[in-house]
Write a structure and sequence with these properties.
- The complex is a heterodimer of chains A (73) and B (381).
- Helix content of chain A is 77%, strand content 0%.
- With 73 residues, chain A is an all-alpha fold.
- In chain A, helix 1 runs antiparallel to helix 3.
- The two termini of chain A are 18 Å apart.
- Chain B is mostly helical and 381 residues long.
- Chain B has helices at 3-17, 21-28, 32-49, 52-62, 64-84, 89-110, 132-148, 152-171, 186-203, 208-221, 246-256, 261-275, 311-323, 327-340, 356-366, 371-380; strands at residues 184-185, 233-234, 240-242, 276-279, 282-285, 343-346, 349-352.
- In chain B, the strands form three sheets. Chain B has a three-stranded antiparallel beta sheet. A two-stranded antiparallel ribbon of chain B has the order 4-5.
- The longest helix of chain B has 22 residues, at 89-110.
- The N and C termini of chain B lie far apart (71 Å).
- The chains are: A mainly alpha (73), B mainly alpha (381).
């Protein structure tokens, strides 16, 4: 599992924020509420979600390629 | 493994993943028609259950315009769905009538200020002091309702409203009405023109000459010389306040389809060139042309750095894309919506958490767009 930690951490953080209501809290980004906690939760969720979708998969793919390459070498 | 190999593999992994992402997203995102149905189901529910006061409380507290415009988009979506699917007509008419009754009641109680930002209380230049933002969208809702089915009370209300709008625009030095004190918005004036065009058919009237004069005036006075796009706001005397703005242009181009289709198509083509961007299967719209300053305001919403993507402009760009039959643009924008607006799905209903009532409303309308405008085009052909 060594090397797979970064994408897993991103995924776990996103799931945790999702369970904490992060997805609903993104409503704060539309300017509907100015509640500080909701804004912070919403922004944290956006960052975690985009990292999960854009960054975690290529990190995992790269690690997988390196593992396969190491096994074959 | 050598660091250079690691970096190379990582770069290749990103290079493989990012262009694939839109294909992955296409597997799980709903088809446009399905999405439209799910969004409208969500927006219809509080009206049907009588919980609308709770549903709109937060948004009205921040900006009553959002509540009002969301009503317009929901009514337009419901009217389109009623024409496209007669089985939905009775249920939809009941919801439309509920929305209209509530809207007219709020207006009767608090005047036009029920739906305006506080600065609307300042003195209007026009002595009548009516907001074309409120009258235009209300007339459009009434005309859409009347297009679906006749109703004597709605007809009387629409006739009165259209007379007031036409008189206001004719009084204006540049054939335009104020939405706010000494602020004429192209969005609102073209919405009023669309309402006039639709009501001409519903009320058997003819304001074609006024519509033509407005377009001639706009070509002469309201087109930005640098981009060829309509400016977004101007004083009652026609002095430009704000240049072209995406959130205004996409809606205006869509409105102008009922007024002057050639001018509308010209504006859409230019707006697509100046304000629309896409990459890797995703699309976004800017609020301001690249040559101008990037400003964040109540219409643009928070601007995404680097891309200058504006949620307000992107949402209304979905409407323009469907209105002008640009399916590539529509799909690219819907993918971005799916990725960055955070869908929440429940019992066959769906809304985007980061889009608010108005954002969800405009996309629901965009995905039902067609029957109302096409019925008008057929009648005037």
């Amino acid at each position: 599992m060594k090397g797979f930690a970064p994408p897993l951490i991103i995924l776990v953080a996103c799931v945790a924020l999702h369970l904490a209501g992060g997805r609903q809290a993104t409503a704060a980004l539309a300017g509907i509420t100015t509640d500080g906690f909701d804004v912070a939760l919403g922004i944290a969720y956006v960052v975690a979600w985009l990292a999960t979708v854009l960054v975690a998969p290529p990190l995992a793919i790269a690690r997988l390629v390196l593992v396969i390459r190491g096994t074959r070498a | 493994v050598r660091p250079t190999v690691r970096v190379l593999v990582l770069v290749l992994a990103f290079a493989a993943w990012l262009p694939t992402l839109h294909l992955v997203l296409d597997v799980w995102r709903p088809k446009p028609a399905e999405l439209g149905t799910e969004l409208l189901a969500e927006l219809r529910e509080p009206w049907q259950e009588g919980s609308i006061d709770v549903a709109i409380a937060d948004e009205r507290a921040v900006n009553p315009e959002w509540d009002f415009m969301a009503r317009t988009f929901v009514v337009l979506a419901l009217a389109n769905e009623s024409i496209a699917d007669p089985d939905r007509r009775v249920t939809n008419l009941a919801t439309i009538d509920r929305i209209l009754a509530d809207t007219l009641a709020r207006e009767a109680a608090d005047g036009m200020h029920a739906f305006l930002l506080p600065y609307g209380r300042g003195p209007f230049v026009d002595p009548e002091g009516n907001s074309l933002f409120v009258d235009g969208e209300l007339a459009l809702m009434l005309a859409a309702r009347l297009t679906v089915a006749p109703d004597r009370a709605i007809e009387i209300e629409l006739r009165t409203r259209i007379e007031r709008i036409v008189a206001q625009m004719e009084r204006g030095p540049v054939l335009s009405g104020e939405s706010y004190p000494d602020e004429c918005w192209t969005f609102c004036n073209t919405t009023a023109l669309a309402a006039i065009a639709l009501s001409d058919r519903a009320l058997d009237q003819d304001h074609g000459e006024l519509l033509q004069r407005w377009v001639a005036m706009a070509r002469e006075r309201l087109v930005d010389p640098e981009t060829g796009l309509l400016v977004s706001s101007y004083t009652l005397r026609g002095e430009v306040l704000d240049g072209p703005e995406g959130s205004s242009l996409w809606m205006s181009a869509h409105n102008l389809l009922l007024v002057d289709p050639a001018f509308a198509r010209e504006q859409f083509a230019r707006a697509r060139e100046e304000l629309y961007g896409s990459a890797l299967g995703f699309g976004w719209a800017r609020e301001w042309p690249e040559t101008g300053d990037v400003r964040v305001d109540v219409d643009s919403g928070p601007i995404v750095p680097v891309l200058d993507a504006s949620p307000g402009s992107s949402g209304l760009a979905v409407l323009a894309a469907t209105a002008f039959g640009d399916e590539d643009m529509r799909d690219e924008l819907l993918r971005s919506l799916e990725l960055a607006a955070f869908p929440i799905e429940e019992n066959g209903r769906r809304h985007y958490a980061a889009a608010g009532l108005i954002g969800n409303g405009v996309v629901a309308y965009a995905l039902h767009f067609g029957p109302l405008w096409h019925a008008h085009a057929r009648a005037t052909r």
